[in-house]
């Protein structure tokens, strides 16, 4: 007797590899019992700041079977974005994930292709693709499917490839072979906690989102708080400090996704270039980049805050 679940699972994982995903893990869809009380406490303590959307669709956020009719499996996928070269020293910095084209579009395209391949080969499969914009606890699902563990900085970590990757999901209505979680390998290390410029990692595995540089420079729409002056370590969009200092990231290898390559001017921009950036230059350098989320005015606000 053919084990269809195994056959389908092997096909999905080989297709994910063909499409350039770093790794693929699968977990049984259902209610996230362990995460529910943690998420509720985090929200009750206002650690999401003004990210009001985190409070929406809590039921769906904790249970993907409410997002996709008949959902049986959550396929988690990782896509590497670690760049070959980084910005020059002594400049205003942006998160490495925003160097190239906006990951939402790049990954969505790959996910749709994967879902199409699944439907072509397996037949009637209902499912939806998710990239960071829907109420899905992607790190929890990736950990459940054995792709890594959630580190003390609250990012997903893998012994093999570190943490410089995007996480995305396909939630489908077929049963597959499920992976098992891996163990935590942070040990007694506190590198991320010690290095965080704004002390946003308030306890191991707990990040106060409202203190995070990424929150201030991307999510916060009003003026940046004066008490944070001098604490941003020259980050103008996002922040990579907790990942940069993590020992596991010495295993990061640079990506091979051409769409994630930066605009040639980006890496050589000096502080003066950033301070004198025009709307035209912004539009050219960040044409399809995630940096456009903060808009030209937002980037100017952040740079003015850094240079004062």
UniProtKB/TrEMBL annotation:
Residue positions binding [4Fe-4S] cluster 1: 186, 189, 192, 246
Subcellular location: Cytoplasm
Domain 4Fe-4S ferredoxin-type: 174-206
Reaction catalysed by this enzyme: epoxyqueuosine(34) in tRNA + AH2 = queuosine(34) in tRNA + A + H2O
Lineage, top ranks: Bacteria, Pseudomonadati, Bacteroidota, Flavobacteriia, Flavobacteriales
Descriptive protein name: Epoxyqueuosine reductase
Pathways per UniProt: tRNA modification; tRNA-queuosine biosynthesis
Family annotation (Pfam families): Fer4_16 (PF13484), QueG_DUF1730 (PF08331)
Gene Ontology molecular function, alphabetical: epoxyqueuosine reductase activity
EC code(s) of this entry: 1.17.99.6
The encoding gene: queG
Reported function: Catalyzes the conversion of epoxyqueuosine (oQ) to queuosine (Q), which is a hypermodified base found in the wobble positions of tRNA(Asp), tRNA(Asn), tRNA(His) and tRNA(Tyr).
Annotated source species: Flavobacterium litorale
UniProt-listed Gene3D superfamilies: 3.30.70.20
């Amino acid at each position: 007797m053919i084990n269809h679940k195994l056959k389908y699972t092997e096909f999905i994982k080989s297709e994910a590899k063909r499409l350039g995903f770093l790794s693929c893990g699968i977990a049984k869809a259902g209610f996230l019992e362990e995460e529910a009380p943690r998420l509720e406490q985090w929200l009750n303590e206002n650690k999401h700041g003004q990210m009001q959307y985190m409070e929406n669709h809590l039921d769906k956020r904790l249970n993907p079977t409410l997002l996709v009719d008949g959902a049986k499996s959550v396929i988690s996928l990782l896509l590497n974005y670690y760049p070959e070269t980084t910005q020059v020293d002594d400049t205003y910095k942006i998160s490495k994930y925003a160097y190239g084209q906006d990951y939402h579009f790049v990954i969505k395209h790959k996910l749709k292709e994967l879902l199409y391949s699944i439907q072509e080969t397996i037949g009637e499969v209902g499912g939806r693709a998710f990239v960071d914009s829907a109420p899905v606890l992607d790190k929890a699902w990736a950990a459940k499917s054995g792709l890594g563990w959630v580190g003390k900085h609250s990012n997903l970590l893998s012994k093999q490839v570190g943490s410089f990757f995007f996480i995305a999901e396909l939630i489908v209505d077929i049963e597959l072979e499920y992976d098992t979680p891996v163990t935590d390998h942070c040990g007694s290390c506190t590198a991320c906690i010690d290095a965080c410029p704004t002390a946003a990692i308030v306890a191991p595995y707990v990040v106060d989102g409202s203190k995070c540089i990424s929150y201030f420079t991307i999510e916060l729409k009003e003026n940046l708080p004066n008490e944070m002056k001098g604490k941003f370590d020259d980050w103008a969009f996002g922040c990579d400090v907790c990942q940069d200092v993590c020992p596991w990231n010495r295993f990061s290898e640079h990506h091979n996704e051409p769409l994630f390559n930066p605009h040639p001017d980006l890496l050589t921009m000096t502080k003066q270039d950033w301070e004198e950036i025009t709307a035209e230059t912004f539009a050219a350098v960040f044409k399809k980049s995630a940096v456009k989320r903060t808009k030209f005015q937002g980037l100017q606000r952040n740079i003015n805050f850094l240079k004062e």
